[in-house]
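Researcher: Please translate sequence to structure tokens.
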Amino acid sequence: MRKMDKIATGLGSVLEWYDFALYGFFAPLIAQLYFPSEHQLIGLLKVFSIFAVGFIARPFGALLFGVISDKYGRTACLKITPLLITIPTLLFALLPTYQQIGALAPCMLILLRILQGMCIGGEFANSIIYLCETTQSKHIYFVGSIGSCTGSFGIFLASTVAAASYIAFPTNILYSWGWRLPFAISVIFGIVTFIIRKNMCESPIYSLTNENKLLVNNPLLESFREQFKDYIIAFGLTFLPATAFYYAFVFLPNVLNILSGHNTGSILGDNSLCLFARLFIIPILGIIAGKIGGIKIMRLACILFFVFSYPLFYGILYYNNYAWLFMFAFALLTTLNAATTPGLLIELLKPQTRCTIFSFTFNVSFGLFGGIVPLISLLLVQQLDSKIASVYYLMLAALITLIATFFFKKSRVYD
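Model: Translation complete:
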């Protein structure tokens, strides 16, 4: 297996998540440009609703590309998704505002987010599967953690670029064209990734499954009929990882300015440092998971999130001088999930339907349970009239995933 194929796979995931996450980090600005409102919280609620729409679109892309990958090969979708997501990102960089074209602007914004979501649904899970299927069994947690890091690195880049934009551009320039620049530059990387991936080799696991005539004609129907239990377990295993990540890295940076008066540029700067630190911690935990078992680390993550989420968020809200430290603690907890989730799903699922189940459950969890975290969290704050109320959803997610870990069972010996 060529090293360039693995590099190209990782590069594509970085690109996809950079494009997708930029929207979240520019949410307050986008709220004013596309959803003008007298009340800042209302505008932000609308923006997070569109953020959730992008995630809700992901399962549809996951099903489409997952079935293609199981039936025609892992590289069948990986060769085209970089180009597919680059197109809506470029259009988003050129999108007129509400002031320029009225209600058509948010409508077009919704359409572009749907297209982005579908492409991410077909890219990220399949790229992780490809990386894991091109390595030895003893290294799948480490390699899976590297796959998680590619997404984290893309979000780190997005957070860093967004923070730099808020700091470097005067307000009038930032609102007129400065915020568009980070979206536009990703087009270059999208084209480069597409070119590199054109000649990538197929996964050995898929090739072996094909040679042994184990492929199924309809991966979606077959998996629902014969492996429905695996769907439920996979949903449970990804519930907390999805919820925790978007709570820590999308919800918190965007609401701290409103809830406790933190500076937006400073928050995004701290957020970027947390994301950067994760890149070094996750692979180490991946190595440990390969030695002691990923399920033990996942259970530890669930317990720690359930116990410490409330005090950590309380500290962020009411101890401003130490907010960065509490945010880092949240980021540290998310590394436990990121290091183990890919390996657990690979061990759980059979090769002939792996992409379909992995892609669908992973993206539904991140779409329905993760993508709506900012929206649900804000609604909890608003409806319960309590700044701390948002953390209850995170604690619920920890409990659900903890229960799922006790139903986990390896489907096969991976070699």
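Researcher: Any highlights?
Model: Residues 16 and 63 are 18 Å apart (CA to CA).
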